[in-house]
Amino acid sequence: MLVKIYGSAIYGVTAQTITIEVSVDTPGVGYHLVGLPDNAIKESSYRISAALKNVGYKVPGKKITINMAPADLRKEGSAYDLSIAVGILAASDQIQAERIADYIIMGELSLDGGLQPIKGVLPIAIKAREEGFKGIILPKQNTREAAIVSNLEVYGVDNISEVIDFFNEGVPLERTEIDTRKEFQDKINFFPFDFSEVKGQETAKRAMEVAAAGGHNIILIGPPGSGKTMLAKRVPSILPPFTLKEALETTKIHSVAGKIGSETSLMTVRPFRSPHHTISDVALVGGGSYPQPGEISLAHNGVLFLDEMPEFKRTVLEVMRQPLEDRVVTISRAKFTVNYPASFMLVASMNPSPSGYFPDDPNNTSTSFEMQRYMNRLSGPLLDRIDIHVEVQKVEFEQLSDKRKGEGSLVIRERVLKAREAQNERYKDLEISYNAQMGPKEIEKFCELDETSKNLIKMAMDKLNLSARAYDRILKVARTIADLEGAENLQSAHVAEAIQYRSLDREFWNI
After folding, report:
1. Which is it for strands 63-69 and 14-25: parallel, antiparallel or unpaired?
2. If phi over 0 gives left and psi between -120 and 50 gives alpha, with beta otherwise, what is residue 225?
3. Alpha-carbon distance values, 357 to 199, 225, 506 (Å)
4. Which listed residue, 193, 208, 351, 434, has the most CB atoms within 10 A of its CB?
5. Strand partners, 37
6. In this predicted model, what pLDDT tens digit does every residue of 70-90 receive, in sequence order?
7. How far is CA 460 from the centre of its chain?
8. Phi and psi of 27, rounded to 5°?
């Protein structure tokens, strides 16, 4: 008997429905699995055999042929165990097959028939709804993630015996339903860190506010213990809240990477990723034999924090140059190409020298040559792509001992939101949504300079030997500063502050 059952495969951050055809024939004995399965799928026969035996069923002693279509696309992972097992039972008349085609069925089997969670459930559920499936059956640990998708019945099971009883005897499965919008709104303003906890550092906090308002990349340069990491961890608390569309985009990426917990359905807070400096190129940008999203994609719509940036391998930093400009990562293989979104805000930190101190600090023991070699770990083109460079000075005792609370994240966030609203209105007919995304055409249109501002920026470029890209960055940051003040046109004060945030471009390169 021939039975068709449906699963799903992940390519990039989207899913493709896989038709699993199971034929059980006589005469003959054997187990033949075709359709470009990887080793994890080939090994499923042992897991399926043990699981069925332990729940009172068996793999028939006949010729079993299983085809996973389309046959020219490689299938990977153990998530097809449940699909294949149910297909074998249906094709051998051990369960009724009438309703099987109504559902996407996915899950990894344990030897006792239990089910283990799988990756990529959200894009699978979205694809199932698009293609008109009635519902999806999957491990209970994944149900909250799939239940984000409306108009789709989501059933979670702990054991394959529950699936068998559902098709054979009509025993109802527990359906999972979530009010996505309510859950989204309830958790959207929860943050573990707040800017009110930061002592002093008013200049750095101002720079963080400007960066958040325009989506600009920023690097913090300061000695150990000055609060660089503390400031970086609080950036998500002043960024605009997720829109539902952004939350779904980000959740899909984390779902594909298997980063969604069993108690989580929809991500409600912008991601904050902080990889260690020993990370590899592939782990940062994504890829591998079976491509997976990297840290820059996991930071999509959020913050990527690179602590002690010069300690990262130069090759790792250089592969970020293209994603910082294009906000997408393309992974190409011989037979396919996948795109991962990578629209993130880069926050980096570094010491001003190998010893950790500024050149004029008495504690600095680094020679000029050592400092130059240290700074050369960051290429000029990479620094050009970072809009804001800001010094973070050592915090004095009087500031640390002051019991008064600083300005809170909610207050700063209100100003950021007003600036973003102005940007949304300005770019409503364009494909961009905030200042950092402006291209040459938008800069020319929205960043017109008066004569005073032109002279100011000309002097800065001559003195600091800035590149054309740095010129564009100054204008983008100046546009954001103007938006924070509610100004329609750029003024010399806005340009002057923006230039101040580029002054580190050459200050350390010319040691």
Report:
1. antiparallel
2. left
3. 20, 11, 17
4. 208
5. 75
6. 988 889 999 999 999 999 999
7. 36
8. -80, 175
For the chain, what are the domain ranges?
2-169, 186-507
Which ranges of 319-450 would DSSP assign to H, the alpha helix? Answer: 321-326, 368-375, 380-384, 397-400, 409-426, 440-446
Residue with tokens 């019991």: 403
Which single residue is written with the structure tokens 């995304």? 437
Residue type, 56: G
The pair phi, psi for residue 196, each rounded to 5°, is -65, -15
**DSSP letter (8 states) at residue 173:** P
CATH architecture of structural domain 186-507: 3-Layer(aba) Sandwich (3.40)
pLDDT bin (cut points 50, 70, 90) of residue 506 is low
Q: CA-based diameter of the chain, in Å? A: 91
- What is the spatial distance between Cα 423 and Cα 419, in angstroms, rounded to a whole number? 6
Q: How far apart are CA 109 and CA 83, in angstroms?
A: 10
Contact 236, 302 (CB under 8 A): yes
Answer for the pair 5, 105: CB distance below 8 angstroms, yes or no. yes
Q: Where are the beta strands (DSSP E) in 247-309?
A: 272-273, 286-287, 292-293, 303-306
pLDDT tier at 509 (50, 70, 90 boundaries)? very low
Collapse the DSSP code of 322 into the 3-class scheme (helix H, G, I; strand E, B; otherwise coil) and give the result.
helix
Alpha helices (H) along 427-491: 440-446, 451-464, 468-485
For residue 78, the tally of other CB atoms under 10 A from its CB is 17
Asked whether the whole model's pTM tops 0.85, one would answer: yes
